[in-house]
Design goal:
By secondary structure, the protein is mainly α. Helices cover 55% and strands 5% of the residues.
Length: 515
Amino acid sequence: MGTEEPVVVGVGPVSAEEVIRVARLGARVRISEEAMSTMAKSRQWIAALAGYPTPVYGVSTGFGALAIRHIPLEKRAQLQRSLIRSHAAGNGPEVEREVVRALMLLRLSTLATGHTGVRPEVAQVYAHLLSAGITPVVYEYGSLGCSGDLAPLAHVGLAVIGEGTVRDAEGRPTPAAEALRAAGIAPVSLEEKEGLALVNGTDGMLGMLLLACDDLRHLLRLADITAAMSVEGLLGTDRVFAADLQSLRPHPGQAAAAENMTRLLAGSDIVRSHAGPGCTVVQDAYSLRCAPQVAGAARDTLAHAEQVAERELASAVDNPVVTADGRVESNGNFHGAPLAYVLDFLAIVVADVASMSERRTDRFLDVARSHGLPPFLAADPGVDSGHMIAQYTQAAIVSELKRLAVPASVDSIPSSAMQEDHVSMGWSAARKLRRALDGLTRVLAVEALTAARGLDLRAPLAPSLATGAVRDAIREHVAGPGTDRYLAPEIDAVVALASSGALLASAEAVVGTLA
């Protein structure tokens, strides 16, 4: 686990950066004294309501369509325990550790606001589990993105009460009771409303959105790098990326992408070689010329998604909720529509950026469009096939990305005997976005691999220092042009460089941080 300073969860929201630290870097967690005091104060309102004859949802009633059932005092602890057990109905593959840690921190953040009415000791178990590296096993299927991410959060709640299965800090599947005992963590016995407070949030959707935004920020800068390599290797021009041309259409993302590409191509002998009046190419193809427009629109969409995520981070999502003046009110803030929409928007963005990347790769391989490069960049075309099938791999991924771009949020299947008759499907939107981001990484890696070979084949003309540095980073793992070799490991090697940030780092070491 992380050895850095712990993330402190207070009454105010955690930041996106703190979520990333906990989810991906294993940062420890502690709860502020203010938050502990606030939770204790709000719990007093729930304790007082527990004895009222007037039914209060989640305190003295059943759940969902069963809210009409009044629950006697002696069965209310069983009510909360039964809620967690019955709602822990997930199925399918395990959800990734980073996703589970993100949703745990986000649920803890809401508990710490005092608006859920749980006792401080319940929230404390979340902090202890995160700090000990204990991760409840959560499954792929079970959330409709409304009434919160019910099944995923219930599987976490199951671990909080010492039941179900977790993975310990070493990743071994372990009974929760055993893992908690080994870590010195006491499970809790839930009281009125507490089980409901553990499951009624958008934390899974939000956690995956924050992780996706972190990934996409990196990948859009990488897309500018691979686009610049392709423009260069395909004898394109950098004049179209000039700031005065971009300012005629003042979208901020477009300006940032164009500036990145200008910096990346600065000083290129290859670009300079055909920049004079003797060049007969009037305009480059759209996949080269319009790269900033597409990558820029992607950035602007990402900025919108980050704004939605920031608002959700500042939210206390629960139902019913404890207000500042002690009222316990039902509400609809658990509906995942705001998150579901932007998760779907980002899947569209990912598919389109990948689609343009694939088109640039294909131009390298077509002798009619590559401006003098050998067919398929092969050493002995006909005997060798070069990168022919690498483009097939890209095309297969892009085709899947287009399917993944079909919105999940336009669907709704009623549940709970029509009490919950419209749902967001935001969890599903988040799951497919994660798969899409993996696909985009692979598509950009194939473009980088192909463009690097294209740059080598332009010798003795030299690429820019920045694109040359990226090419050199690839060459540390993949040999340059030659007769056909086993290609899959070479693609995998560049995918690893793309995923780790090594390709981006090699370019930024030359030109500084890209926008």
